[in-house]
Design brief:
mainly alpha; 3-stranded antiparallel β-sheet; 6 strands
């Protein structure tokens, strides 16, 4: 038997073989995901501080509105702990049973946070109704309001940090936690207004009325979080603007011998996925098609670094290549 390594041919049957290159020095296209758990720890610290401050404000004043505000901060603490776990799980690398990674763990955090908000809202609404029929006086309002304002400032600052970094890093966990904290800030503003009105007017039922409105607002927030996390778990496509940008990019690379269809996108936490079919002349060699595909994917990753891209080559002349053109 004659073996010619230069031509990669076996003499006994003229079969061609391929020498597999050494891939040990190949640099991966994607960098490991960033550990965002430090933001969850920031949220935990903020929730702990605001719980203590708002509980102190409630203890000083006896306001059910401030009590409801403190209860929501307790939910924030539990949600921040769940977010910490979700962020740690989401960055685990793919394994045998999770070959696309664990990034969807973030959606479970947002869903769990929404469910806890439902519980907190129910408690707040029930307490507000009870206090409406059995009003109690509010004392030392000035000190209580000052303490609650301090807690709101902490929440507002942390919410800004979480939302800014969540959008920058495409983390639904951080975005959900940031929106929840921001809602908490507006909730606190409503409570402060209610307590202030009681202080000015002397009408004690204003306090539970505001608390009831707070409970309804929290309920709506929880419903939105559950809806968002549920939709995302169903492999929702990327936003319309990003899909349009991707299609414009592919259109710009289309010509007489290269076309694209069956373009699909989805997102899973911080990960984005794109797949498409690339139609090229049937007489191209495997290497020509492969090189064209790899060069295109490199350009895509330059524009969308977090994208996981999968392309499928098809001969442009084959009618079967167009069977999925409507997808």
């Amino acid at each position: 038997m004659t073996l010619l390594f230069g031509e990669h041919r076996l003499g006994w049957d003229n079969a061609w073989v391929t020498t597999i290159p050494d891939t040990s020095a190949v640099t991966p296209r994607h960098q490991p995901p960033e550990d965002l758990s430090r933001f969850a720890w920031l949220s935990i610290a903020a929730a702990t501080a605001t719980i203590l401050l708002k509980a102190l404000a409630w203890w000083i004043t006896g306001s059910v509105g401030l009590l409801s505000d403190a209860a929501e901060s307790l939910v924030n603490l539990v949600a921040a702990v769940i977010a910490l776990v979700a962020l740690k799980v989401s960055i685990r690398p793919p394994d045998k049973n999770h070959q696309f990674g664990h990034s969807k763990a973030e959606y479970f955090s947002a869903g769990a946070e929404g469910m806890m908000i439902f519980i907190a809202a129910a408690v707040i609404i029930y307490t507000a109704i009870q206090r409406f029929f059995h009003p109690q006086s509010i004392e030392d309002v000035g000190i209580g309001l000052l303490v609650s304002v301090l807690a709101s400032v902490i929440n507002g600052a942390v919410a800004w940090v979480l939302l800014r970094n969540g959008r920058k890093r495409r983390s639904m966990t951080l975005i959900a936690d940031g929106k929840h904290l921001l809602t908490d800030v507006w909730t606190s503003v409503g409570v402060l207004v209610g307590v202030g009105l009681v202080w000015l007017t002397g009408w004690q039922r204003l306090d539970p009325i505001v608390a009831f409105a707070v409970g309804i607002n929290i309920l709506i927030t929880g419903a939105k979080l559950v809806e968002q996390s549920g939709t995302a778990l169903l492999d929702v496509s990327l936003p319309k603007e990003e899909n349009a940008a991707i299609r414009d990019f592919l259109d710009a690379h289309s010509n007489d011998h290269m076309r694209f269809h069956a373009v699909r996108t989805r997102e899973a936490g911080y990960r984005q996925f794109l797949e498409f079919h690339m139609l090229v002349p049937g007489f191209w060699t495997v290497k020509q098609g492969h090189d064209a595909m790899e060069d295109l994917i490199d350009e895509i990753l330059d524009k969308w670094p977090e994208m996981r891209v999968s392309g499928h080559l098809e001969p442009i002349e084959d009618p079967r290549s167009y069977e999925d053109i409507d997808v």
